[in-house]
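One such shown below:

_____
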Amino acid sequence: MATERETPAPDGAPRGARGTARSATTAPLVLTGARVVLPTGTVENGRLAIDGTRIAASAAAGAEVVDVSGHWLVPGFVDIHNHGGGGASFAGTAEQAMAAVRTHRLHGTTTLVASTVTDEMDLLVRQAGLLSELAEQGEIAGIHFEGPFISPCRKGAHSESLLRDPDPAEVRKLIDAARGHAKMVTLATELPGGIDSVRLLAEHGVIAAVGHTDASYEQTAEAIDAGATVATHLFNAMPALGHRAPGPIAALLEDERVTVELINDGVHLHPAALELAFRHAGADRVAFITDAMDAAGSADGRYLLGPLEVEVSDGVARLVEGGSIAGSTLTLDRAFRRAVTVDKLPVEDVVTALSANPARLLGLDDRIGSLEPGKDADLVLLDADFALKGVMRRGEWVVAPQLP
């Protein structure tokens, strides 16, 4: 798979817009001439001022001006469901976790929640402790526990022998191990303890996500009433929509309290399913995710997802044993480009699904998710064909602008 690479300065720092290294402490910057996607709509021939780590209301005196005409400026992407990339996962060391984080930053993901996969509880507790340190350092935005509290009927790429019912005491154990950085837990809420666990999560300000579930329509509605607010990769790892047994999909799509995750890689969803979700839920209730595993931004081959072996061929990850889809190799710049060029979604709706909605879910929309004064200078520069040409995170170029 092709990946965008940063061009390092001689000292290893990313290159700035004009071939000079730029850090958050350098002179203010103004990007001009682009189509700038704001919460109020797209501004043609727009200007975006950056001062230090933040977006500024106006250009400071002496600011460097860079012409990015012919490009789009959009907010940095926010991924709330991501297991790894660049050949590394969030189940390993801190160095491996950071390799995954950096891989996705090169593809425009300036804010990332690290997702775990089903494993022994003691290992998950240790993993939560390690990841919480990265959250405290500001490298990740928190932790998402996907499993082990999921249905063996809809286990996907999770080890069935390690699955367990969502006992609230064990859910609480993971929350405590995350030291305030647990952002989301995916549950099969129909299992014993599921509804009580949803209530526990809601009480602690952690998102309860319905996923890897065999629940009925009625059971899913009960979970939503108890406080579940996210559908983990809607359509995938749950019963299909039926006309007599509508199942969880109908309940999750129809309830305005629920945000639905979608994996827009052309593998996990038929375009008609994506269109159904957007039409029924609306752009304000969709969050594009990657559900990426180690091979995102890396080559085909054999990988591990938790304790399970995965074969990646032509960018599609499947379990060696059984052949189930095992996460994705998606990056959010590819999800953006596909949504606009293949699915024909409005750019503004795609920005909402990639940035604003996940930022809101995380409670970080006062800092990220849109290009507004006072917010972090997190942005992505795309060319007219929606190919990634630059990434800035907190005022520093991660991928230097690749201008004509």
The chain is about 25% helix and 25% strand.
